[in-house]
Each structure stands twice: as structure tokens, then as C-alpha cells.
Amino acid sequence: MAEQEHNGVNGFHSESEQRNQPVNGDASEAVNGNPSNGLRVTIEESASSAVNGGSPTNSMLTPIRQRMERKKSSPMMPTFMVSAPGKVIVFGEHAVVHGKAAIAAAISLRSYLLVNTLSKSKRTVTLKFPDIDFNHSWNIDELPWKIFQQPGKKKYYYSLVTEIDQELVDAVQPFLADVSIDKPADIRKVHQNSAGSFLYMFLSLGSQSFPGCQYTLRSTIPIGAGLGSSATIAVCLSAALLLQLRTLSGPHPDQPPEEARLQIERINRWAFVYEMFIHGNPSGVDNTVSTQGKAVVFQRTDYNQPPSVRPLWDFPKLPLLLVDTRTAKSTAHEVAKVATLKKKHPQLVGTILTAIDQVTQSSAQLIEEQGFNTEDEESLSKVGEMMTINHGLLVSLGVSHPRLERVRELVDHEGIGWTKLTGAGGGGCSITLLRPGVPREKLDKLEQRLDEEGYSKFETTLGSDGVGVLWPAVLKNGMDEDEEGGMEIDLEKFLSADSNEALEKLVGVHGDRGEREGWKFWRVENRD
Ligand SMILES: Nc1ncnc2c1ncn2[C@@H]1O[C@H](COP(=O)(O)OP(=O)(O)O)[C@@H](O)[C@H]1O
Ligand SMILES: C[C@@](O)(CCOP(=O)(O)O)CC(=O)O
């Protein structure tokens, strides 16, 4: 499978990819509760048939609790949100597609998905992706449920799906025919690919009795820049669907780490399905780090098994400069290029991939060493040298780009630090590890030069939280709050945030003083 051409299931890729319901009654209680609590009300009252049958969570409900909740009148699920972080691959991109290890860390740039459940009579499911000017609705009752429910085809929320089923892809095709019909071909392909990935996951997980709903996505992550934007959408949609199906427990603060890990694993499995549809042959590192957050050493040696994921809990606060070349790239195209090169020169390319693996392993060791200190030149220069070597190996695989080489040239010339591309390459972003003690003027000069040459720079921290849930979509954000101190995020407000800053201010998981009350995360740390 790792050798497969990498063109997305539909071949729907172009190289120039462009880059409430009011909460019914008990909002204040649910803000401090957990999604499963909120969901119980809904499912008991109106959407019982929407649930995909006997999950452990269902059976965990006590009869007394059910009776008590039945008294409340809450006919629909509240509007809720999920959010997932982008990532940088610090070491090992591309090699990771061929079974080698990679180190990736979640960043503070995130995607946010608002989920509105519609009233019972509205039988449509809508995707609204305003960042890419995509909006489409389907009639739920017209979707090809039968094919997805066939014995042997039917998948469950706990299934491990390791490949996309061509018969199911074919069943989805007719529902993509009228997607963005008025848009230019390359944009239309991107929209059809998003729509196809969503429908594949929706039909696999759901059933015809699924309630009508709207999924609206906004993101602060540059699209197609190597920061894992597609994986964040995969994670958000997977988490949203699994929450709607009441198959997840929590997140809640006192949840045991093993239980939290299981929920993360389930979200990640379905996010991977979305990624497989969109990219053809992803390693799974992007969706894994986006779901789990923090930083991980990731490796998938056998595509029929879950990957090995080793968290790096104390990932150092590396002083990084993240530069976007603002040159569009296609992950699918870059991955396919490496696969073709490997087919042509198996031994040589095999040696390069093994060398990248050694760089990744050595770097993980360095970072985890007791004495590793981000302010110490010796510690940093060792990691920096690894980055330089990793970049050189990626260049030899043919996945760099003149705009990426230009960043390296500018940084190297001034002795500012060590640079490598991050993500698929062919454009996208680079990361520079800054040498300690570089004078501010030198940095300013570099930033000015990059600005003049059309690059953009991102300030982000590594090691952010993974997938988060805001249930219901009410939070304290210091803006227009009601007497209970919360603001209900409805579609209009969500769509009207007109910049990344405004979006972060409105719904961001982090306020000025750290985590914002309302957002909850599955805490998987267990350091014992
Ligand atoms: N904000 C967004 N809204 C809708 N779709 C998005 C958004 N960001 C990314 N995508 C989807 O992800 C694709 C880019 O994924 P990919 O090529 O893997 O780039 P990246 O390196 O950012 O992950 C886009 O073509 C689009 O389908
Ligand atoms: C090149 C690769 O290793 C990373 C791609 O990252 P991105 O799509 O550019 O964010 C592919 C993969 O791991 O699936």
C-alpha cells in the first residue's frame, strides 16, 4: 500500500489546490457537564432512532438517570463545537509514509467546527466550508445507505478501517456530480474531494435515521502549507460524528487516562479514513498528532495495524520560526513523487529513507535526554544539525522547492539557525530552529527580507492540546456575554468573525490567560 500512487481516491486533486439551534433550556448545566450528559437528553427525547445501536455508553446509562432526564424537554442536540490543532513535522516526513518514524508536534493554529442539529422535519446534511468557498447540502434520505449497510461492508464506530473500499467510493460518486458545478475545475476538484471524504465517513458511521445537521468549519491554519490543515478537518468531523452518535465518553476532567486514550483512538481511526479518501495513502501522522495533541514519535510499519504512537510529554519549547512560502503544493503529488523515485531506485531511496529514520531516532533521543536545555547552544545545535541533515535528505528525494531553498539561504547566510522544510514540501512551510543569542537586529532584518519576498511568518507554540469539545457552544470570551457569563455561538456569529484573530477571540480554545473555560479535552497523559 505504501507504494501506491498517491492521488486521492477520486483522483480529485489538482496541483494548484487553493490554498442553533438555541440550546434548549439547560445550557448552563451542560456548559459544565460533558457531552455524554448533554447528548443523553437529546437521544432520549427525539433522536433515539438516530443512534447507531448499542454502544457501551448507551448501556452505561442507569434507568434512574434516564427517567430523570426524560422529564426535561430538550428535543434536539444543542449546537456544539469541536476543534483540532494543526501540526509541524519536526523530523521524518515522507519517510513516515514508508514505515519509518516521524516526530510531530501540535501547534496553536486550529480548526473549529460548529455542529447544528436541525429540527426533525429537516432531512438535509450540509457542509459549509467558507474558507474555501464551499457549501453543499444533501437530502439524507437519498444517500446510498443500503450499500454502506450491506453485510461485509458495514463498519462500526470501533472498526479499524485500513483501506478505502472502491465499491463504496463508486456509490458516493453520483452525489458529487452537482458539487460546485459553477466553479473552475481545480477548485471543484478540491470541493468534490472534501465532499466525498465527508460522505464516505458519514455513510460509514451513520444511518438513515441520522438527524439533519449542518457542519460549518473555520480554520486559522494556512491551507495546503504543510501544517496538516486537512487532518484537522478530518479530526473535527470524526469527533463530531462520533459525539452525535453518542459513542464517545467525556471529555471530562476526572476521566481516567486509559478511558481518554480509547476515545482518542476512536476519533483518530475515523479521521484516518477521511485522510485516506482525501490523500490516497497518508501515513496517519497528521491526524494522530492533531487528535492527541502535544508531540509524538509516530511509526506505522504495518498498515493493517494501528500505528505505534509514543508521546513526548515534555517536548522542549524549541525557539522556532515558522515560514510559509505561500506557494501551493499538493501532499498527494509530493508523496507520489517519492513513491515513483523509490520504484525506480529502490536501494538508493531505501538508504535515504533509512538515513531519515536514523535522524529521527537520534533526535528523539537528544530531545528526551535529561540535560537537554533549549537555552544551551550545544543542545540546540545538535538538534539543529539533525534538521539540516533531514532537510538535505528531503532535497535528495526531490521534495524541496526554490522558495524553501531561499529561506534556507537567507537563514544560513546570517548564521541565524538551522532550517528544514516541514510537511510534504514542494512549497508549503519551513521551520528554522533559532540559534541562541542571535541579535534582534539580525532577526528583524531576516523577517523584513522574507516579508519583501512574499513569505509570511507564523508565531506558534509547539505541544498544543489535541481535539477539544465545547458542548454546548456557549463560552466565556469577554464579549457580549449573557447574565450567566456565557455567549452562545450561533452560525451567524461564527461566520461573521472576519479574521483569524476575531475567530480566536470568539471561539478560541485559549484565552489570554491560558485555557478558556468551556473547552474540554481528553487528557491522555499518564506519566507513571
Ligand atoms: N479551512 C479549510 N476549510 C475547508 N477545507 C480545508 C481547509 N483547510 C484545508 N482544507 C482541505 O484540506 C486540503 C489541504 O490539505 P493538504 O494538501 O494535506 O494540506 P496541508 O498540508 O495543509 O494538510 C484542502 O485542499 C481542503 O480540501
Ligand atoms: C509527506 C507526509 O509525510 C506529511 C504531509 O503533511 P502535509 O499534508 O503537508 O501537512 C505525508 C504523510 O505523512 O502522510
List keywords for this structure.
528 residues, alpha+beta, Alpha-Beta Plaits, 9-stranded mixed beta sheet, 4-stranded antiparallel beta sheet, 17 helices, 39% helix, kinase, mevalonate kinase activity, ATP-binding, lipid biosynthesis, cytoplasm
How would you describe this structure to a colleague?
- The chain is built from 17 helices and 17 strands.
- The strands form four sheets. Strands 1, 2, 3, 4, 5, 6, 7, 12 and 17 form a nine-stranded mixed β-sheet that branches. Strands 9-10-8-11 form a four-stranded antiparallel β-sheet.
- The chain is 39% helix and 17% strand.
- Residues 1-74 have low confidence and may be disordered.
- The protein has two domains: 1-315 and 462-528, Ribosomal Protein S5, domain 2; 320-458, GHMP kinase, C-terminal domain (Alpha-Beta Plaits).
- Strand 9 and strand 10 (429-434) form a beta hairpin.
- The two termini are 37 Å apart.
- With 528 residues, the protein is of the alpha+beta class.
- It has helices spanning 27-31, 35-45, 56-60, 63-70, 145-149, 166-172, 185-205, 229-244, 257-279, 285-292, 331-344, 346-368, 377-396, 402-413, 440-452, 491-496, 500-507; strands at residues 80-91, 102-117, 124-129, 134-139, 213-219, 295-299, 308-311, 320-324, 417-422, 429-434, 456-458, 468-470, 474-475, 487-488, 510-511, 514-515, 520-521.
- The structure holds adenosine-5'-diphosphate and (3R)-3-hydroxy-3-methyl-5-(phosphonooxy)pentanoic acid (PMV).
- (3R)-3-hydroxy-3-methyl-5-(phosphonooxy)pentanoic acid is lined by residues 89, 93-94, 96-97, 226-228, 282-283, 285-286, 331, 335, 423-424, 428.
